[in-house]
């Protein structure tokens, strides 16, 4: 499993905590593709990181994205504007486990400034333990598993119906947004070794470097 960690500027100081917690609680390959410090350039907002998450997931370059922002709300709303994304706002371990079991999503948004106080790093560890503990989509309560699975399938169909294709989204995007994304070397390196469709997106983004 490949998990991409994508932090924007306001939450960049939490990057190390997130990466450490994931390494401690999972055997996944961690792709750290966002901001690691507030000084890093280009500076990324949740608008940029939403695009980055959508590109990586839609090209098969990662299996799961851990993102967020100060409250978690901005990244959540940003990434849900794209096709193929099922994202949850995760505050505590039970949120993580229920999101995994009921929604079976591929992305989480964390509040990384609001409420991020004493033992917050421990809360991250416990959250990731529960988020990745059991096979996603198993259902809760278990007798609701079939109905919840049908809802996930229907939601995926609605997402496909209501969103433009990712390629068209990129063509219609403000070049200044793409310039910041393309200028983030760690992201471009992951995309270079990404899944189906990554090569075409990579070549398109290179013109904005």
Short description:
With 209 residues, the chain is α/β, with parallel strands linked by helices. The chain has helices at 15-25, 46-58, 73-79, 93-103, 120-131, 145-162, 166-172, 175-182, 185-192, 198-206, and strands spanning 2-5, 29-32, 64-69, 87-89, 107-111.
What pattern of helices and strands is seen along the backbone?
Answer: EHEHEHEHEHHHHHH
Q: Kindly state the mean pLDDT as a whole number?
A: 97
- Structural class of the secondary structure composition? alpha/beta
Provide the spatial order of strands within the biggest beta sheet. 2-1-3-5-4
Beta strand count: 5
What is the overall silhouette? globular
Distance between the ends: 29 Å
User: What is the beta-strand fraction?
Assistant: 5-15%
Largest sheet: 5 strands, parallel
> Which consecutive residue ranges, at least 5 long each, have pLDDT under 50?
none
State the helical fraction: 40-55%
- In DSSP terms (H or I, runs of 4 or more residues), the helix count works out at 10
Rg, rounded, reads: 16 Å
Note the main attributes of this structure.
209 residues, 5-stranded parallel sheet, 10 helices, globular
Describe what you observe in this structure.
- This protein is α/β, with parallel strands linked by helices and 209 residues long.
- 50% of the residues lie in helices and 11% in strands.
- The protein has ten helices and five strands.
- Strands 2-1-3-5-4 form a five-stranded parallel sheet, sandwiched between helices.
- Helix 1 crosses helix 5 (120-131) and helix 2 crosses helix 3.
- The longest helix is centred in the C-terminal third of the chain and has 18 residues, at 145-162.
- The two termini are 29 Å apart.
- The model has no long low-confidence stretch (mean pLDDT 97).
């Amino acid at each position: 499993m490949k998990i991409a960690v994508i932090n924007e500027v306001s939450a960049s100081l939490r990057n190390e905590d997130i990466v450490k917690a994931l390494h401690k609680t999972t055997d996944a390959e961690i792709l750290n593709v966002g901001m690691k410090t507030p000084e890093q350039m280009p500076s990324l907002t949740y608008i940029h990181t939403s695009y980055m998450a959508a590109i990586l997931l839609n090209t098969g370059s990662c299996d799961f994205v851990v993102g967020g922002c100060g409250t978690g709300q901005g990244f959540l709303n940003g990434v849900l504007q794209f096709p193929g994304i099922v994202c949850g706002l995760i505050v505590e371990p039970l949120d993580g486990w229920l999101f995994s079991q009921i929604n079976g999503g591929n992305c989480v948004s964390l509040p990384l400034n609001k409420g991020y106080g004493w033992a917050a790093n421990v809360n991250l560890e416990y959250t990731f333990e529960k988020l990745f503990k059991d096979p996603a989509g198993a259902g809760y309560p278990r007798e609701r598993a079939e109905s919840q699975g049908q809802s996930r399938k229907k939601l995926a169909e609605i997402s496909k119906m209501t969103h433009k294709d990712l390629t068209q989204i990129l063509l219609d995007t403000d070049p200044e947004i793409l310039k910041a994304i393309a200028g983030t070397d760690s992201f471009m390196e992951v995309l270079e070794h990404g899944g189906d469709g990554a090569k075409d997106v990579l070549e398109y983004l290179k013109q904005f470097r």
